[in-house]
């Protein structure tokens, strides 16, 4: 990611430099285009001037050819003077343009000759060019013969214009011809060509031979010197004369700029053209511009590098912080998955490992067996000898299991006196063998350690986690009813009827609780850790006396087993909101727990939830919906959509038990929360372990970056209160600040007194009372994690449940 970011910034930095180069190059190229355009215009101008001059000369030739005096001069010597006068007039009008003029009769004898304005009669009758004579005599009257090639005479290039001399008696039969030798140098000189670019020249090129017959600099046939010498330029012009237009680009690359070729005459008999050349240099960048662009590129790259470092530094720091947080989080989470009394895994760890083992079976067909163990008569020990003796029994059982299990086995304490052992790659017979080893090892203790157990195995007896657990529990229940102190495997014939009956009874009990609302609401205060002000209350549920369940943990566990978690969540929500709307002041917040199963349910609707609030007169802005981290999220997209709709309706969303469940930081990374509630295991361990305190600090910082409010749960001792206040937590919740109860008009707390260990707030059914503080009160925790009320049911760290 860092490399991609740097490359992106460098690309953004280089783009302006590239654009600048393109613009400069376009400007330079435009200068070359302008030079070509000027050369083209000058070529056209010069070509038009030459054509005009030639047409003027042709007009004078036609006038003289039709003059009867020239015809008489051919037949009568007395008329020679008139013809001579006509030639002198032509010499005066054309100047040096006409280098030579000849009047010849039909036989080819030259009667008059004019050279450079001097008219004379030849001393001997020289013969005219037979080809020129014949071609001219065949022309109709009023037409002109234009020679198709050039010839050298008198050191200059010339071409011939000839017209027939009309007969006085019959105009259609010419008596002779009048031929004019046109000097190309003088022709070029006569147009007075001037050029915008210094050093530009005009060339007259013979299209048939490709020869350069005249130029505007030397007025002779000498070839202009180009950058590569005369031979190369001559070849280029010769090729161009052959109508190869692409050669012009090659000529320009040699240092000459030019325009398109123009034919200087409109007659097909004179295939020659005029070319204008302008010496130029190939497009280049001035040294100052190159240095400026290079400096600009260096500055831009340096700035881009500096910016990437500024951007990446906090990102790298955040990544390092996240990596350290993850390590500390995993360490703290490992502590939170360990039972503090026995050192074995707790119920939360058992649920995760059970899911993992079943998944391994589904993927790789790895069998697994489950052994559930229950200590016999632990309540008798607690009642007769005290809880310390009961805790000692639990510790001895944990030690026994740790010594007997294999390296691949996993052992847990899942309840007050219940233990579980997961044994991968083990069938029922192998599980029974380990159970017998436990019994033999227990017999060697000085003090009797009676227990019963039940075994099930996947896939021999069960295919799902629910079946595996219920079958092992059914086998354990059978052993407890038949004398205790024994261990047996699940027997389908023996246990199925009882298991089915128990499941039917549990389903009927849950349905009755939901239908008759055999639940009541209690509220635990959420306190501002800076001012001691009660911000709101978390709504929890308890079974009523009419309910068949003795505690909320059992109720929600049964609901999860029989598949009625969503319905029980809805009933609890209705009871909590209805009671809160009547009893809690309108300026206090109300927080409720909803299971991910409920929020992911197809029939869940935010509109239905809002209708419940409207029914009881509670504003959506007072409600906080807590989403527990203890359960896996199965449908992320549906959950994200429903949470977004809750927030859009004005309902705050809280992440509950952060730091406890198997989701880890994934819950926080995938969803947007207004409130982050830190799990009691992290809070309570933070007062004893630096690693847990570092996790709390990092979670606080992350929540601050996301703009979330932080609530520390499970505050039971003054050390924990002092620790979370020093960490700057926003609010707190726990037995030290108030137990769950029905009193919802608690006063502002004196946190300094509480931190000093002087007072603790008791939230009971009676008005608030002040009682001496104790440091051993444990905030109850849901063992299964099923929904509303999951924050304070069950037992943790002791063999007995604290009274609410």
* Low-pLDDT runs: 219-270, 764-804
Rg, nearest Å: 56 Å
Major sheet: 8 strands, mixed, barrel
Overall helicity: 40-55%
Proportion of residues in extended strands: 15-25%
Task: Let me know the number of strands.
Answer: 27
Short description:
By secondary structure, this protein is α+β, with helices and mostly antiparallel strands.
Overview of this protein structure:
The protein is of the alpha+beta class. The protein is 47% helix and 18% strand. It has 24 helices and 27 strands. Strands 18-19-20-21-22-23-24-25 form an eight-stranded mixed β-barrel, surrounded by four helices. Helix 1 packs antiparallel against helix 3 (80-94) and helix 8 (287-336) packs across helix 22 (690-705). The chain is rod-shaped and about 170 Å long. The protein starts with a helix and ends in a 33-residue tail after the last strand.
